[in-house]
From TrEMBL:
GO terms for molecular function: magnesium ion binding; phosphatase activity. The lineage of its organism: Bacteria, Bacillati, Bacillota, Bacilli, Lactobacillales. One of its GO terms (cellular component) is cytosol. InterPro entries: HAD-like_sf, HAD_sf. This is HAD-superfamily hydrolase. It comes from Streptococcus pseudoporcinus. Pfam families: Hydrolase_3. The keyword Hydrolase applies. It comes from the Bacteria.
């Protein structure tokens, strides 16, 4: 279920808006923003509205963004927004659907992360899973017992393509399947980074940087989008760049 809300975003007429995904776009080790990119972002931030939009919940974005304490954030693939230091859940997963998810978790003994407004429920027995270095790395929240209400996002691990297809048939949720790592990401119906961004900036124009399928709408609807080594965005306004070109491309926006 999506809860539409329009946020007040002052000063957009005199500053450009630039939106950045995190992991794989400006963060390459799961822990920090690339140092050269960070230096460039700090300069850009003085003359632009920078918004960060990530698949991470806002809780897990914060350790990467200690230099950007006042910036608007979009987390959980658009399921939550931090604006003016207030976190709002913009969509949540239908409770009946969550009952099916929980049953499947127990039936197949799946590893999972279930995010709520701030706390989470998680079981990850595979200690090689790279998401462990991102999950509440700053110890800001609690790993609580599973519940089926006010769920913003679910990640299920070791999911077959067939099982992912079963989940995707449900019209009450948004589903992204990362086949290369057998990871299924579930958010509320209509949850998307671009749609969340629209709630923050309205019809104002923006530039965007991203690197994955959850950035496609964000990039396609930008004045100019930059896709970092992700060649599957089919749009004339989207340019494919390498990781090595991210910093120099950001510098082109410094005016």
């Amino acid at each position: 279920m999506t809860m539409l809300k329009k946020f007040s975003f002052e000063g957009v007429s005199d500053k450009q808006i630039v939106v950045f995904d995190l992991d794989g776009t400006i963060v390459f080790d799961g822990k920090t923003i690339d140092s050269d990119i960070l230096s460039t972002l700090l300069v850009l931030d003085k003359m632009s509205h920078i918004i960060f939009a990530s698949a991470r919940p806002i809780r897990d974005m914060l350790p990467l963004l200690t230099d950007f304490g006042q910036n608007s954030l979009i987390g959980g693939n658009g399921s939550m927004i931090r604006h003016k230091n207030q976190i709002t859940l913009t969509s949540y997963i239908d409770e009946n659907f969550m009952l099916k998810v929980v049953n499947k978790i127990h039936e197949l003994n799946l590893d999972y992360i279930i995010d709520y407004e701030w706390n989470y429920s998680a079981k990850i027995e595979d200690h090689r899973n790279p998401i462990l270095q991102k999950l509440d790395s700053a110890k800001l929240a609690d790993n609580v017992a599973i519940r089926t209400t006010n769920v913003s996002k679910v990640i299920l691990f070791n999911i077959s393509k067939e099982l992912a297809l079963q989940f995707s048939r449900d019209k009450d949720v948004s589903v992204l399947y990362h086949e290369d790592v057998q990871e299924l990401v579930i958010t509320g119906k209509g949850s998307d980074k671009y749609l969340a961004l629209k709630q923050v900036i309205g019809d104002n124009l923006y530039y965007a940087f991203g690197n994955d399928k959850n950035d496609i709408m964000l990039l396609q609807n930008a004045t100019k989008g930059f896709s970092v080594e992700y060649p599957f965005v089919q749009s004339k306004n989207v340019q494919i760049i390498t990781r090595q070109e991210v910093c120099s491309t950001i510098k082109l926006l410094i005016k």
